[in-house]
Amino acid sequence: MNYQDLFSKALSGMSGNIIREITKVTQQPGFTSLAGGSPSPDCFPARELQEIAAEVIEKKKIAALQYGASEGYLPLREWIAGWVKEKGINATLSQVIITSGSQQGIDLLAKTFLDPGNRVLVENPTYIAAIKIFSVYQSVFEPVFSDGDGIIPESLEEILNQKACKLLYLIPNFQNPSGVTLTAQRRKAISEIVSRHNLILLEDDPYGELRYSGEMIPPMKASDPDGRVVYMGSFSKIICPGLRVAFSIGAPEIMQKVAIGKQNTDMHTSNLSQLLIYEFCSRGLLPAHIEKCCNIYRKKRDMMLELLETHFPAEVSWTKPAGGIFIWAKLPAGVSSMEILKEALKEKLAFIPGEDFFASGGGSNTMRFNFCNITSAQMEDGILRLGQLIKRFLTNK
Ligand SMILES: Cc1ncc(COP(=O)(O)O)c(C=O)c1O
Fold first, then answer.
1. pTM of the shown model
2. Which ligand 1 atom is nearest residue 100's CA?
3. pLDDT for 282
4. Could you give the CA distance from residue 260 to residue 69 in angstroms, rounded to a whole number?
């Protein structure tokens, strides 16, 4: 059977996400992987969740196991509305919706706002899965120049002076893939541009709590007088991703539409997952748990930065993130990270080549490393061997 002519236009030309493809290969025994976007299982609060699971199934059987509201489990929504106040976000209950991961939040917001041909502004590079989602809604990408301080407001304004766009997608903290954080000054400038040009801003913040140095910068949602910002947070990187619990916060009119979209997609996020997250958070366990994860990840970040300094050739540069889970490296122009990956895979070594993080091409000399989900021994071995491989490539160029 040839299905090609029958597939939807949106999906027929689309390939799988490169991270998921590489991650499948790296699950073979003996692989050293700097690839993937997973947090460390050492940071899953498994024992606490096990106890809570037994308790909620026994004592809150209906809330945990029956169908629930599309907007999410009410006590969890209330808890989140209280929690985000610490970041300066004032949200009423009707502004908070639980989603099955912020991945679904991005999809639902795209479904809410995007018609085919609408222009979406993205950081360059940006999160691969967001590129895939916006592509399904047949968006036209407008990549905005970024540097070590995040996207450049002047570049954003220049595009908007020429073309009407609908949505700006930003990951302001410890960006995926670059690890870069958008400065407070730029956040303010960008907020003004967003207002002036009638944009919706999707502020995607799954890494914000994982800060290892410096001070928290308030989210753009904290100063959003016109209700243009939809803020997304996730429990994936601070509790565990398998439960698939995240949240979106936006103007009530927007969230009503998002809830309608969610009714059609999955009806509601797993109630059992929501109750596990709610009980964990409302028992006050989250702050100490985040601190524990930050202490583990800070050490891993520092170790990888040191190893890169020792083993990588001087022609390669890389970011020094203040948080999150990724380091982003740049090879000299003309050196292909995909070619290096092909050789690396033969040696059972993996990383993510950067090309697919660029919505409109480019970036073939870039690469992303996950420093949090790897043992010290694997990290030492992986960075040493990758450094040697890159040196061989540069000598033979
Ligand atoms: C920037 C960004 N947004 C969203 C997600 C999706 O996270 P979730 O597990 O909440 O769906 C990820 C996951 O890696 C991410 O890096």
1. 0.96
2. 11
3. 98
4. 11
